[in-house]
Write a structure and sequence with these properties.
- The complex is a heterodimer of chains A (541) and B (307).
- By secondary structure, chain A is an alpha+beta fold.
- Chain A has helices at 2-21, 56-65, 113-124, 142-145, 194-197, 199-204, 250-258, 276-280, 307-318, 322-328, 346-349, 364-373, 393-408, 422-430, 449-457, 471-482, 486-503, and strands at residues 36-41, 70-72, 79-81, 84-89, 94-99, 160-164, 167-171, 212-218, 222-227, 241-246, 264-265, 284-296, 334-336, 382-387, 414-419, 437-443, 506-518, 522-523, 539-540.
- In chain A, strands 11, 12, 13, 14, 15, 16 and 17 form a seven-stranded mixed β-sheet that branches. A four-stranded mixed β-sheet of chain A has the order 1-10-9-8, with helices on one face. Chain A has a four-stranded antiparallel β-sheet with strand order 4-5-7-6, with helices on one face.
- In chain A, strand 2 and strand 3 (79-81) form a beta hairpin.
- In chain A, helix 15 (449-457) packs antiparallel against helix 16 (471-482) and helix 16 (471-482) packs antiparallel against helix 17 (486-503).
- Chain B contains twelve helices and no strands.
- Helices cover 73% and strands 0% of the residues of chain B.
- Chain B has helices at 2-29, 45-54, 61-72, 86-121, 126-140, 143-157, 175-200, 204-211, 216-245, 248-253, 259-268, 272-300.
- With 307 residues, chain B is mainly α.
- Classes of the chains: A alpha+beta (541), B mainly alpha (307).
- Chains A and B meet through helix 1, helix 7, helix 14 and strand 16 of A and helix 2, helix 4, helix 6, helix 9 and helix 10 of B.
Chain lengths: 541, 307
């Protein structure tokens, strides 16, 4: 009998434990007390160093913890001086930066010109493995600290000179009138001394100069940011803090939001777009972001680099029914593209609706005619490669192919080419392994028309994966960079963009919107042009 | 017995090396992981080369494998791409997954075996039929459907649980995910126990026990159940490893940052250090669980001897 009694005891104990503790926890508290906002987050891919963070998730945190010389207005995207008092130049090549002297880091250390110069030197140096090192490429001496191969011959950028505590000078290796406008990017923020002296400690709890300080950071699962009362800037936090919570799946985050467990989701999953209006009403945000998606072609393949192929590419562009795909597959979270930039730039910044003209408009008859005049699709079939692991690339690639097949009256004219992982896809793209087209996308680093053109289409530019090259385009970009007047620079860039209409090196597909949803606990939620929530402006009711 | 254990332990060595080598090769054929680190742009070649050296990716695969294995024996599992030590990742992920697995196993044992005994003793009666149909339904419905459904009903509609598990993942939050994770195995345990009990119920020793006038409870628990548990224990033992490694779906749905989540991240980012490290530990868990199962046979049925 003894054994049986014990077994029963164990069973009872388990049952009691289950009913006592289990299925509890139904308290519907949102982000916690004290005006704290809880928000979804993804695990940053790289260590959280400013010059080493190149994706949205890490960038989000840097945006809360750091402020640089310049800050992009969260609404208009316009570059405005933040720590910089003024950035002057007479020749678009030599700049003098003066900083305000009331700024400190949250640990009390004063921000001087050295805080910037040291941080930039650290970011540029090859030995530090910083993935955003190329942001410093325009500064004189970059080749010596970060040579393309071999080892560095200098430790610091020769173009950077500290004049005094509030002034430093920058010499660029070429004329670049819009350069001050690039300084709002996270790679250009100042760093405190402790970053160099106790790097590991800094990484486990970064110290910056922004409106928030990091209270707790559990890598891979959560980060608690709290308002920094001593913040010297004008854009003080309007809430007590932000709790970021890593979600394994954005569907779960969305479920948590609808259950009242979370205040903010900044990435509404595609599968929920149909319900989002009913679930959230006007607490759903869908605003343009600085992201454009395109189809790229391999110009290292002879067949695609012929005069005839130009017509084929223009024909393919006209064969894609952008309107229908953005409406049906993306539920209007994307807008058909009619140039190669993004609406967030605004007309003044260089966005020009319809610049692409009829080449980006759906026209079945003309499309087929052009493709046939150009000698047909090289190889007889267009294969569009994409990574199948994240995003809903399969759906739209299939839709694009459908559209092309319809026009050609041949259901083998275009097929999708899935690649298992993003890393594999990128490695095939960057090592010129693909022989057909592939999905390409560009998320801007800073709201400048230059950023949408030069890194992508300039000869041998770092993201010119298709190896397209055109002297006319290159010359216009050089000319635009040398213009000291901003308006003239922008219109010269648009002239360069017109070369893209003639040559169609990549087919613009659509501009991507940022989408977010929030709970009825919070208000004043918006997304900036980088599709990151403007956390410091969120108010808790 | 001792010699048997030693022989089994020795057999584990080639299995261990074989599986880790296979995983290592699989992760490596997937392509260049560094390419994915820079997002939709190309890493600048100098930084990429530097990173490759840092992660040892510039050496031939066999050399990488040897270095890796050498490091493992000193407890160094390498570094993930986000700069965290893989051992650190393990220290946070494994306790959570072990907790989840324990919850699931407890469900399997308590609910699965009880249902199995009840139905086995009442073969053909309405209870038996009802439970059989239920288990069939559970086996037929995929885990992610059960998971999402329970999450929607209990979490969003009725507000009984939180739809997602917090990062500390205490046991009470793991009850529903544990039940979801256990569901399919639970159905199998029920069916296995039922069949085994039904078969043994007519065995001579049970009839003898009844004839001796032993109380029914003692007959069922000590004589019938103990002998019927051998196939069930085998199943549960192998299930330990399967649950730990195969919790990816459940962990994703309920936002549990356990082994499944880390493995998924590691595969997406092609981080061989994370993937191989976690799989290595899982292989060890699998091997240990199998050994324990084999040793348990003798406890359950003294007629089984090891040589």
């Amino acid at each position: 009998m003894r054994g049986a009694t014990q077994a029963r005891w164990a069973a009872c104990a388990v049952a009691v434990a289950l009913t006592a503790t289990g299925c509890g926890g139904g308290d519907s508290g949102g982000g916690g007390a004290g005006g704290i906002v809880s928000s979804s987050w993804g695990d940053p891919q790289n260590p959280l160093e400013p010059a080493n963070t190149n994706e949205v998730q890490g960038g989000k945190v840097l945006d809360m913890v750091f402020r640089g010389l310049v800050r992009y207005d969260p609404k208009t995207g316009e570059a405005q001086n933040e720590i910089a008092e003024k950035i002057d130049s007479k020749d678009s090549q030599n700049f003098t930066v003066t900083i305000k002297d009331n700024w400190t880091f949250s640990n009390g250390e004063k921000i001087t010109s050295k805080s910037f110069v040291d941080a930039w030197n650290y970011g540029a140096a090859l030995k530090n493995n910083q993935k955003n090192a190329y942001f410093f490429q325009y500064i004189d001496g970059y080749d010596a600290v970060h040579p393309e191969s071999g080892s560095a011959t200098a430790d610091t950028l020769s173009g950077l000179k500290v004049v005094n505590d509030t002034t430093f000078t920058v010499k660029l290796s070429q004329k670049f009138s819009l350069w001050p406008d690039t300084l709002g990017y996270a790679a250009f923020v100042p760093l405190p001394k402790v970053f160099y002296t106790d790097h590991d400690a800094w990484l486990s709890k970064p110290i910056g100069n922004g409106p928030y300080t990091i209270d707790q950071y559990a890598k891979g699962s959560s980060m608690n940011l709290r308002k920094w009362d001593g913040y010297p800037g004008a854009d003080k936090a309007q809430n007590g803090g932000i709790d970021l919570k890593v979600y394994t799946d954005n569907n779960t985050a969305y479920t948590d939001l609808t259950a009242g467990n979370l205040d903010l989701v900044d990435d509404v999953p595609a599968s929920q777009l149909k319900n989002v209006k009913a679930d959230l009403g006007d607490r759903y945000i869908n605003t343009p972001a600085g992201i454009i998606q395109t189809l790229a072609f391999p110009f290292y393949e002879k067949a695609w680099d012929t005069p005839g192929a130009v017509k084929v590419r223009q024909g393919l562009s006209m064969a894609i029914n952008r309107e229908q795909i953005t409406n049906q597959i993306f539920q209007k979270t994307r807008t058909p593209a009619s140039d190669w930039t993004s609406p967030v730039l605004g007309a003044e910044g260089g966005f020009k609706k319809g610049l692409c003209g009829s080449a980006c408009e759906y026209d079945k008859a003309e499309a087929k005619k052009l493709i046939q005049e150009g000698g047909g699709i090289p190889g007889g079939q267009l294969k569009i490669s994409y990574n199948a692991d994240t995003g809903s690339h399969k759906e739209w690639v299939d839709a694009v192919c459908n559209s092309i097949n319809n026009v050609m009256g041949n259901n083998k004219a275009c097929v999708g080419g899935p690649v298992g992982t993003f890393a594999d896809f990128r490695s095939q793209v960057s090592t010129q392994k693909l022989t057909g087209a592939w999905r390409a996308g560009w998320q801007m680093d800073y709201p400048l028309i230059q950023n949408f053109l030069q890194p992508l289409y300039y000869t041998n530019a770092p993201s010119n994966d298709g190896k397209w090259s055109d002297t006319k385009f290159d010359d216009l970009v050089d000319k635009a960079n040398a213009e000291s007047d901003k308006a003239t620079a922008v219109s010269t860039f648009q002239d360069a963009e017109k070369v893209l209409v003639e040559q169609m090196p990549v087919i613009p597909l659509w501009y991507q919107n940022g989408s977010a949803g929030y709970s009825d606990r919070v208000e004043n939620v918006s997304l900036n042009p980088f599709s990151v929530p403007v956390y410091d402006q969120i108010k808790v009711k | 017995m001792g010699r048997y254990v030693i022989r089994r332990l020795l057999q584990m060595i080639p299995v261990f090396f074989g599986t880790t080598l296979l995983i290592f090769l699989m992760v490596n054929v997937m392509g260049d992981p560094i390419a994915g680190l820079c997002g939709d742009r190309q890493c600048d070649p100098a930084t990429a080369a530097q990173l490759r050296t840092e992660f040892g990716l510039d050496k031939p695969v066999w050399q990488q494998y040897l270095t890796y294995m050498g490091n493992i024996f000193t407890g160094d599992f390498g570094t993930a791409f986000n700069g965290q030590k893989v051992t650190e990742l393990m220290a946070t992920a494994f306790p959570i997954t072990i907790r989840l697995t324990v919850v699931a196993i407890v469900f399997e044992i308590v609910i699965g075996i009880s249902l199995g005994v009840v139905t086995g003793l009442r073969r053909g009666r309405p209870v038996d039929t009802v439970v059989l149909i239920l288990t069939l339904v559970v086996i037929a419905v995929p885990t992610f459907v059960t998971g999402l459904l329970l999450q929607l009903l209990l979490g969003v509609e009725w507000g009984i649980i939180k739809p997602s598990v917090s990062s500390e993942a205490p046991v009470d939050e793991l009850i529903v995910p544990g039940l979801v994770l256990a569901s399919v195995s639970l159905a199998y345990v029920t069916r296995l126990t039922r069949t085994s009990i039904a078969e043994n119920a007519r065995a001579d020793y049970v009839r003898t026990a009844v004839a001796k006038g032993l109380p029914r409870r003692r007959v069922v628990v000590r004589h019938l159940l103990r002998n019927s548990l051998i196939p069930v224990v085998t199943f549960i033992g192998t299930d330990v490893g399967a649950l730990m490694g195969g919790a990816i779906v459940t962990e994703r749905i309920f936002n549990i940052h356990g082994v499944g989540y880390q493995l998924y991240q590691g595969i997406l980012r092609q981080n061989s250090q994370t993937v191989v490290g976690f799989v290595t530990v899982l292989v060890l868990v699998f091997l240990a669980a199998n050994l324990i199962v084999d040793l348990l046979y003798a406890v359950l049925d003294p007629r089984i001897r090891y040589a």
